[in-house]
Amino acid sequence: MPDSQLVNIVINGRPLTVPKGEMIIEAARRIGIEIPHFCYHPRLSKETGANCRMCLVEVSMPRRGPDGTVTLAKMPKPQTSCSLPADEGMVIETETPAIVEARRGILEFLLINHPLDCPICDRGGECPLQNNTLHYGPPTTRFVEEKRHLPKAYPLSQHVVLDRERCIHCARCTRFAADISGDAQLGFLKRGADMEVSAYHETEFTSLFSGNVIELCPVGALLSRDYRFRARPWDLATQKSICTECSNGCNIKLDHRAGKLVRVNARVNEVVNEEWTCDRGKFGMGHISSEDRIRRPLIREGDAFREATWEEALSLVEQRLREAGASTAFLGGSLSSNEDLYVLQRLWREVLGSPHLDHRMGPSFARNVDRIRVLGHTGVVRSISDLEKKRTIVVFGSDLAVEQPIVYLRVRKAWNRHDARVIEIQPASLRSPGHSNRVADFASVSARYDPAERVGAAWDLLRTAVEQRLVENSALPNMVVGKLDTAPTCSVISALSSILLEPPVAVLVGADAVRSMDMMDVLEPLGALAQALGDAWTIAVPASKVNEQGARDLGILPDTVPGGSPSATFGFNSHEILESAGKGNVSVLWVSGLDVAQEYHDPAFAARNLEQAPFVVFSGMHLHATARMANVVLPVCSVAECDGTYTNVEGRVQRFYKAYEPSLDVREEWRIASNLAARLGCPMAYVTWRDVLAEIAAKVPIHRGCTPDRLAGEGVLREEPVLTGATKP
Amino acid sequence: MGERLVLLEHRNLPGADTLAVYESISGYEGLRKALVMEPRAVIEEIKKSGLQGRGGAGFPTWIKWQGVLSNPPGERYVICNADEGEPGTFKDRELMLRLPHMVVEGIIIAGYATQAHTGYIYIRGEFTEPARAVRRAIDEAYEEGYLGDSVAGSGFRFDLNVHLGAGSYECGEETALMSSLMGERGQPRAKPPHAPLPVVAGLWSKPTLINNVETYACVPHILRRGGEWYASMGTERAKGTKIFSVSGHIRKPGNYEIELGTPLMELIELAGGVDGQLKAVIPGGSSVPILPASRCADVKLDYDSCRAAGTMLGSGGFMVFNETTDIVKLMAVTARFYAHESCGKCTPCREGTRWMSKIFDRILRGNGRPEDPDLLISICNNIDGRSYCPLGDAAAWPIRASVQHFRHEYEYWIQHGESPLGPHSVPRLTRDSHA
Amino acid sequence: MTVASEYKKGRFSEAALKELEEIASHYPERKAAMLPALWIAQREYGGQLTAEAIEEVARLLGRPTVEVEGVASFYTMYNLGKRGKRHLEVCTCLTCAVLGASEVVRKLEERLGIEVGQTTADGEFSLAEAECLNWCEAGTVVQVGSKYFGNVTPENVDQLLEEVLRTEETTGVGQADTVVKVHLGRRRERARHTGEGDSTNG
Ligand SMILES: Cc1cc2nc3c(=O)[nH]c(=O)nc-3n(C[C@H](O)[C@H](O)[C@H](O)COP(=O)(O)O)c2cc1C
Ligand code: SF4
Ligand code: FES
């Protein structure tokens, strides 16, 4: 680990100052020297590294003689720069004849058993082995023996194939599984030249993060089953984007060709996903180029849809909205961009005069103000990367790796690299989650509650904190203190008695609690604790859909305007919207993105009411069950077909970029909304998405800093709303 | 000079493996003496003796002990390396089998001198007989209070555990041994300048002393009779005695303990002389360069003299080869050994050893190519100094030396597709090593 | 309530589990009992490290199965399931090789009717070549389980086979048992001497 002390070293005659302990391979990068390597990866443990031997350098160390004079003593053997910590006075040479020779030798060794099937290898064109061979390799082969033969293409997981003949034994994939994702399902079997990478008995690698090994592999041994033989890297164009498959907001690269997504790779964002993705994102975005995208507007005629022009569709919607006025409602939106949501809610609040907007799928529809009052904030993670600074992390009611994959990796890193203590308090159903990325594998305490005991479990956590004098009664709201003795308790209390809640603490509350009627009862004790401890404690009720947090922040709620302040009039929540639509009291129901008929907590209720609703507009990409119930279907752009921003689980506003022109007749939702506003007599002056972005930054206080230039890097953590109405009860 | 029996003096005494008999030959006196000394003074005695590691590298023993002792207080470990796997070596086997208490006593003294309370003796898994003898000795030592909560009533606590390997030469390398002892694949761990020495962070990242069986066996004698007495044997720069395991074409194979610096030819005489005519000697186990007979005359068996002759003292696995020995076939066996034992972690050793072995197979099938001798040397050069641990070097040195000294035999094989020594030459091979 | 590990009942006997716990107590970390645990498993599973054996070790030590398989397959002595009841290993390393190990191998092949690397049809014998067994003074050396045979020649191979057949020990179980037993000591006795042991002892 580099520390704060600086040391002076010399690399190829150039003096430089670097943190003591920084690996020489990294130090060299500072002055533009790239030392060739295979096994080294800055995020993987050094413990099992330094095995490829490609990064050898010559090293001299200062030695003080008995008379005090310092001489340089050259080490007899070259050393691997990837594992060599910088120390005062070290002198490094990276390009001597001996080193050039050594590299050539190593490359020759790596190539003798390599099949050299580059022309049919998916890695061809972006292969470190191929590239290094070109630069540093031997001109011809001296190997005339039989090469190693192993079965080709062993399907390692649902997404990854392993070609062991190409493997160079760098241990990157095994280290990833052991250190980062923690499922430890990959390992080396046998030894010597027979050594091979495998999952146990060639069983399936069931990691939720298996795709990362494809990018980590410095050769074409681990490849994507989806992408296999589909394209060559040099045929692909690439664009920066944000993963849309959950709320973590992983930064990704979309590789595309001819207006279609071909593959997803990770893009570095140190404060979000570092350079990882999860399989759901990496392999789950294919739907944006799937055949079942809605190609043009549809209008229901009897039991079927007919294709329509935008003019036709929009004038029909315009006419219905005009007639309905305030008796319109908006449901969904957590898949739309901030720009879409902002303009849509303007259409509702300012043009139609309707306060009926909600993105939540239930079952709890607690008022946002109440929620903020209880939690002290809107319940974001605040900062994924700050989880590394926590001493204690409590995971409450969450299959974290499924619900918040990247948050899971950060929690594991906090434990693995920074010795944070992890405690999980989970529903009994999580005993065997059916995947291998379990918090239980590294938690110091795993407590299980019965669904009926959920609230008691939350109170038990508060009681433990009180008992440990982490918080004084006087710092808690009277109401909460009053309930300490009477509120339910459960068996969790005894499991917690053995552990110390060392601050700073973070509590991550997941779906089991959030997706229950008990949500507010669970949050009451936890929120009180969070507020009593201030910054030493964080509580997060993380969003799950890609822009659920954006929908929360930008007023897709019946009681909150953009920025988090309570609205003047309170509208219907999702339940009331659906109910009223079913009864015909809402004459136009607009559903955006979500398949409400499936994703609503009570799907039958949702389906029944959607069925009975007088007029349903759907805007989205796919013709799912809900879309099929619509009267008008408006196809929208995918994340690859437009620009915009999403707000991730920690409240970070991040930019995605248009990768290609849509080949379908689709539009951005904000354009649709502003077009309708104009048709309804209230034109909005937006020409491009930037105009919307600028207006949000100007008008929504919490989005103040979200200007295009600032969004270019790691994104911007939007501010927390200041609640005027939220005081200590 | 003849034999100089210190460690092996009582090798044939019946019951020398039992505590009672061992005590009757002054056993555990060294320990009793040590226990009333300051740990630092014990190390001082070892320093005076000039004892160097007998496991192969010849590193001054006291420096390691000092290194462990000078750590801040805390858990620390002592390991006895009884993985004896170097081809041609069988001295540790005999010490454990016949004189296990001597080894145990040496380990306890080392524990006291370094203030460690736990020791492990890592014995190769194949050595079940020697391991049983060591087990019995440890049990007896516990019963008699030489191990346990108060060693010989001194109040010093020391526990000694036996841990067996499961078949891997690489586990004799000290960091790989630690991996194996910690329950992992026997692959080596980082060392300076990449990571601290084992004496600072070894087993479970705690200060760890590791020495060879024979090194420990010397310790009771040094304590009992004094470092100066021990240093009076051997040469100026290689003190004391060393056990050589003599095997091959020799009339009386076995272990011979001689003073360091004894002429090589004298050892051959001691062991009854060559069975046939001397062709070559590998003096220190398969990992050291082979010495053709022509170079044997002036060599003395100490570190410097061996080095000057282009070979090494190594582990003392002294193999003698007569005129019927076909060097190419001998080296094919050597190459196969290293390819089989390479742990696979690093590129040069994993790929280079297997490649060389395949080249030997091809030559012996009669398909040698004129460029093969140089190719072998080049592969050796590409392994030497670039592997993660010294196993790679150990594979390269003997093969490179054999090409240098016996190139004509390689050329004969390549030209004629058969042995220059005819069909009765040895070793006879069973089959291709990697058919 | 802490998660109870949902152990599938394995084939480790009560005595074997006790052995494992005693051995594990020798180390500050449970993982260090890996090699001995695999030996116990080989014995408990009838001389072979089957998949179930590896899984049981993984469960008992709390380690990933692939890690246990990786360890088991690294070392040459564990029987991953191909060997006969009596596994003969002939050292064919340097000294033994020059002293005629290949003749011993040929003779054994002839007598057993199998080649190196094979097992007899009745599963009784298997034959292998070994790297240095480090008793070179007695070359050619043959190892059968926990026994070493020295100075083996083609002439005395039959004698060797007879002796091997006379012993009850089968390699996979016998060797494993010997190795396990060597790990187990009389450390308990120590308590009696220092007077702080449990009173039932006195
Ligand atoms: C591949 C390899 C195998 C080794 N095998 C052994 C061995 O079997 N026994 C041993 O004592 N040392 C062996 N060593 C040397 C050890 O690494 C280490 O130097 C030795 O145990 C230190 O003890 P000493 O100082 O008492 O000699 C081996 C080294 C290498 C590189
Ligand atoms: S040199 Fe490399 S492959 Fe060989 S044993 Fe050492 S680390 Fe393993
Ligand atoms: S990058 Fe340094 S050894 Fe592989």
Textual characterization of the structure:
The complex is a heterotrimer of chains A (729), B (435) and C (202). With 729 residues, chain A is an alpha/beta fold. Chain A has a 7-stranded mixed sheet, sandwiched between helices. In chain A, strands 1, 2, 3, 4, 5 and 6 form a 6-stranded mixed sheet that branches. A 5-stranded parallel sheet of chain A has the order 21-20-19-22-23. In chain A, a hairpin with a 5-residue loop joins strand 3 (56-64) and strand 4. In chain A, helix 2 packs across helix 3, helix 7 crosses helix 22 and helix 8 (338-352) runs parallel beside helix 22 (669-679). The longest helix of chain A is centred in the N-terminal third of the chain and has 16 residues, at 97-112. With 435 residues, chain B is of the alpha/beta class. In chain B, helix 7 (128-143) links the parallel strand 2 (118-123) and strand 3 (159-164). In chain B, helix 5 packs across helix 7, helix 6 (100-114) packs across helix 9 and helix 14 (347-367) runs antiparallel to helix 15 (372-383). The termini of chain B are far apart. In chain B, 65% of the residues are buried. In chain C, helix 1 (14-24) packs antiparallel against helix 2, helix 2 crosses helix 3 (51-61) and helix 2 packs across helix 8 (171-183). The longest helix of chain C has 13 residues, at 171-183. The two termini of chain C are 40 Å apart. Chains in contact: A-B, A-C, B-C. The structure holds flavin mononucleotide, iron/sulfur cluster (SF4) and FE2/S2 (inorganic) cluster. Flavin mononucleotide binds next to strand 4 and helix 16 of chain B.
